[in-house]
User: Fold Putative competence-damage inducible protein from Peptoniphilus stercorisuis.
Amino acid sequence: MKAEILTIGTEVLIGSILNTNAKFLSEKLSEIGVNVEYQISVKDDYDKIYDQINRSIERSDLIFLCGGLGPTEDDITKDVLADVLNKKLYIDKKEEENLLEFYKNSNKTMTKNNIRQVRVIEGSKVFHNHWGIAPGELIELDSKKIFLLPGPPKEFEPMVNKYVLNNIYEDNDIEILSINIIGLGESNIEDRIRKLNINYNNVTINTFAHFYDTEVKIIAEGLNSELLKEEISKIEYLIRKEFGKNVYSTGLTTPCETLVKKLIDKNIKISFAESITGGLLSSKITSVPNSSKILKSSYVTYSNEAKIFELNVREETLNEFGAVSEETAIEMARGLYNKGFSNIAISITGEAGPTPTEKEVGQVFICFYEGEDNYFIKDIKFHGNRNEIQERAANYIITKLLLKIN
Assistant:
C-alpha cells in the first residue's frame, strides 16, 4: 500500500514552522506496514494544490492532506479537493452545533468566517475533532482513500491515533513485529537476512538503521490473524538463530531502555567515569525510568586534577602516558571500581577535538573493569566532529554493555 503526505501551507515552505506532522504520520504508517513514498509541501495556491492532488491520486493508494482547514481565506484545502472530485461542500449540522457550543463555553465572540471550518465534502466520512474545531474527513475513491486532517500538531497527532490507523485496514488483519539488532551494520544485516531465503507472499521484511542499532520490521497482512502470527513467529526464530546475542529486543524499544531492564533483571550495578563524554553517557542511562536501580555513581573527571582526586589516578601515570591513554583509562576504572559502588566500572577518556592536545582527534580509550584480574580495555578511533565523536563513543559503550549481558 503506497501512501503520500501532502502538507498544505506557505508557512511550512518559508520555514516559519517545522513540519512535524509528516514525520509523526510517516512513523505511524510505517508501524502498520504502509510505505510512504512521497512527502510534499505545497503553498496556499489553488492551482498548485489542485495539480498536486491530481498527481497524488494518480500514483498513490492513500493520500493525506494535512492543513488548510482553518477559517481564513487562504485555508482552501477542502475547496480544492471538492473541485478535484467534482463534489459539493455543505455545512455539517452536527459539527456546526459543536462549533457554536465551543464558542459559547469559551466566552469568545465567533467571527462569521469560522463557519468555513465545519464545511465538509459530500459523501465523506466525518471525524469529529475533539481537540479543535475543524473536523477530519475520509473520502473513498474506488480503491483509494483520501484523508483530510487539521494542521496544528496538538489536533493532528491525536486525530491520527484515533481515526486514521483504524480506517486504513478494514478487511485484512495485519501483524507486525520489530526485531532490534545491535553491533552490526544495516547492510550486513540486510544481506544475511536475504540469504535466509524467507519467502511468504503476504510478508515483507525491511531494515531501518537507527544511530547505532538496526530495526528489522516484519509485516504480515492477510485474512487469518492466527496464520499471520505463526508466520511471523517462524521468521523471528530464523532471525534470532542467525544473529544470536546481537538481537537485543523485540518491539518498539531503545537500546538504553533494554539495557536498563536487563541490568535490573540480572541485578548488575554499573558506574561511569567520564572524561571525553562529559556526562553524556550517564545522561543517556538516566533518561530511562528506574535507572537509579542500576546506575550507582557517575563521575565527570574532565581535568587531570579531578582524575587524581576523585579516582586515584596516579600523577606519574598522567605525566608519563597522558590523560588520553590506555594506562589512564585503566586507573580511572580501577579507582571507580574500588569505591565499591558497582559490579562493572566503565571509564572513558579521549580526544574530542577539534584541536588535538595529546593524541589524534577521535582517539578514545574505554575500560570495562570488574576486578583486578578481570578487565577489558578498548583503543578505538571515532570519526566526525566533536559532538559526533562524543555521541559515537557513548553509544559504543551502551552497545558493548548490551552485548556483554545479553
Remarks:
- The chain has 14 helices and 17 strands.
